[in-house]
Amino acid sequence: MNLLHLEGVTRTVQLVDAPPLTILSGVDLEVAVGDRVSIVGRSGSGKSTLLNLLGLLDTPTTGLMLFDDRPVQSFSSGERDRVRGRDVGFIFQQFNLLQGRTALENVMTPLLYATGRAFWQRSRIASEMLGRVGLGNRLTAMPDKLSGGEQQRVAIARSLVRGPRLILADEPTGALDLETGASVMDLLDAVATESGAALVTITHDPAIAARANLHLRLDRGVLTVAPTGAAEVDASAADAAQAVAAGAPS
Ligand SMILES: Nc1ncnc2c1ncn2[C@@H]1O[C@H](COP(=O)(O)OP(=O)(O)O)[C@@H](O)[C@H]1O
Ligand SMILES: [Mg+2]
Predict the structure, then answer these.
(1) Domains of the chain: which residue ranges?
(2) Is the C-beta atom of 152 inside 6 A of ligand 1?
(3) Phi, psi (rounded to 5 degrees) for 12
(4) Ligand 1 in contact with 20 (CB < 6 A)?
């Protein structure tokens, strides 16, 4: 089943004293439940803008975009917020944890907007989720007392605590060393699979891009499907990407 369907989607911004800027043009994309999608592209090519559209933080300027078979332009802003809160989890390069709040409080935050059991049992659900990411013994730790890898695990727990069907990760390993990044991605893959969610990851790392079943590339706002094994960011990374693709289990 298609979670996302984009057809001829553009995103343009009006600038002061300059012609409008086209950030995305003619984007066609389908994402189904369970898909693993990677997006690569140079800085400024429109990756974060696309991710924000997919996650209902922003709406297309023109074109068709369906979320769960419903046109997103038909959502009221309240409905957009509700669907995003329930169905979408975001993970960012800089973790974006609330400082001065414990790991548990951070993970509980999305449940404050839930209803029923998810709201009333938010503390128990959040501590279980922290257990699933291997931080069951760090519930009361403050973010500044955790390593980068641990902070990203807290952020993963927070993004997954409401059981989203779509997880959007914007360079999730960009602030981590290679080894920590790989283990964070293993965890993200595992919990996404467990919860049956689609995972869309923006990355500069060919090894992480190679994990996907759908490889996308953005070039100045134009999206193309890259052939498998060609997930490199630029020509200089081509050899590394090919090595990774050749060595990776299919
Ligand atoms: N709200 C905005 N107003 C003006 N320019 C923007 C806005 N959002 C993004 N841009 C520009 O659009 C381009 C793509 O941005 P972005 O999606 O953040 O790229 P990426 O994530 O690939 O680095 C950049 O040149 C950026 O400066
Ligand atoms: Mg970006």
Answers:
(1) 2-247
(2) no
(3) -125, 140
(4) no
